[in-house]
Amino acid sequence: MVANIISFIVGIIALVGAGIFSYLQFGLSEPRIAAPTTTPAVVVVPKKVSPTPVSKTPTETTIEVPAKITPKQEEPKASTAQAPVPTNGSLVTKTPTTVQNVVEPGPLRITVSPSTPTGTTLSVRGVIEYTNGARSLNGGLPALIENSTLDRDAQIKLEDMFAKQYFEHESPTGVGPSDIAKAVGYNFVIVGENLALGDFASDEKLVEAWMNSPGHRANILNEHYEEIGVAVGRGMYEGRLTWLAVQAFGMPLSSCPAIDTQKKTQIDINNLEVTSRAAILESKKAFIEALPTNDPNYNTYVNEFNALVQPYNALVVDTRTMVVEYNLTVQAFNNCIAAAGTATH
Prior knowledge:
8 helices, alpha/beta, single chain
């Protein structure tokens, strides 16, 4: 830029100098008559060059602004309705087994021999001790724990037999071991009963007589039993004074895996809610399917539907998980009942 300015000034000075020189040369000198020549003079007139004006203002840089892109206008797409999670029977719970097993070997009656002492006294404690001794000697089975509820069960049975003069597992009125167990509030998986009638010499001889009878022996050595109740008493039976003895065996319901009843309650509540929400979704879905997709409110209806589907699906998934967990406990409980039931066969 500086070079352009200097060139411009020099050009001006040259023009001014040429003008002054011409004025002095032609204006102030006297006129002369030029001698004729045969050769015409050639006058060379220099071409006047106009210097390019240089602006002193700095050149501004122009930035090109890209043209604004107008987005392509597209037709709005119709929203897609989400699909509710199908239950496909996955919210159905298993049913706990309600079968309660009862083992009833035939009653044991002995004939009184002349040598049998009549002053024998039988005891609850002694019968339990010899019973556990027999279990220990036969396979090392664990000792049975005396249960006061089963003691009451056995005592009711003993008194009923004296009162009604019968010697059977089922009374003349149809009351059996399981009925008495339920009446006294003993919740069980399996119960068993041994009966004995006669003048036994001792607690040991009483248990020995039971062990010599296959059915009673199997009851005493049943590996599923955990608790025992005993009643012994002397009274009039068929016109003579004699002894009656009752053993009440039991496996309490608490021995099997517990079933979460609170979870079952929540599952039932959830299933009612799932059914209610499913009906609402079906109604809305039918309404949407009847609409043309170009309906101005179509997307609004679909979005409202989808907003209901999400919590519905979450409820179904949560309930399904609860059902699986609950059913596992029910299956374990049922397996426990089934295993105990083998003792009756």
